[in-house]
Amino acid sequence: MFVDWSYALRDWPTYLDAAWLSLKLSLEAFALAFVLGLLGALARKSRHRALRAPAAVYVEVVRNTPVLLQMFVAYFALPSAGLRLSPVQAGVLALGVNVGAYLTEIFRAGIQAVPRGQREAARVLALSPLRTFAHVVLPQALRNVYPAVVNQLVQIILGSSLLSAISVPELTGSAMVINSRTLLTVQVFGIAAVIYLILTNAVVLAAGLIGRVAFKPPLRPAARPRPLSAVRRLLTARPVRPVQKEA
């Protein structure tokens, strides 16, 4: 069966605008999720129960409810409480809050993976707790969890397709509008799928390049000479026999 793509490709400006909107909203939601995740991880690690308990409730509630339901709450329920948001604002808020719960656990695991001895060394150097966290703990924690954080960014890009349920004209929503007008279901959603594939792979590639620059591997220390090994080699070396000259 022949599939004609030429007619579906006539709407390529709409696809590009929708793809840019999807990427823009995803980055905004990721920025919100990053802040919420970092604050949530610090609250989960706090000694004060007044901080640990709300953070634990936030993580459990958000991770165990559908993200689409959270979007409906942000768009339909918050106005009844006096907070009216546009579809874009509600979508960014819902995505950021949802992924922020997952980043909370990811950052908490990364902070726990930093050896305690490094904090003690910073304390010996008279670094304040804030400087210790900013200059010692946080860089190593980010290095540990960087691949998982990038994966959450990809999940936000894919999850942005749900914003079409609250009338946001992102890529999936625009594809649905084009499909209702052209009835070229295979072509329209096939183009949208290819664009999503390009977006996610481009983000992963860019994140990989950023990670190589930001998290360069530490230089290996130069090999130190081992005096005992040198002595052992001298003792076990075979004596060299002198060459006898012929008379």
From TrEMBL:
Residue spans crossing the bilayer: 20-43, 148-168, 188-210
Domain ABC transmembrane type-1: start-end pairs: 19-210
PROSITE patterns, A to Z: ABC_TM1
Membrane topology: Multi-pass membrane protein
CDD domains per the UniProt record, alphabetical: TM_PBP2
Superkingdom of the organism of origin: Bacteria
PANTHER family xrefs: ABC TRANSPORTER PERMEASE PROTEIN (PTHR30614:SF35), MEMBRANE COMPONENT OF AMINO ACID ABC TRANSPORTER (PTHR30614)
Protein name (Swiss-Prot/TrEMBL): Amino acid ABC transporter permease
Organismal lineage: Bacteria, Bacillati, Actinomycetota, Actinomycetes, Kitasatosporales
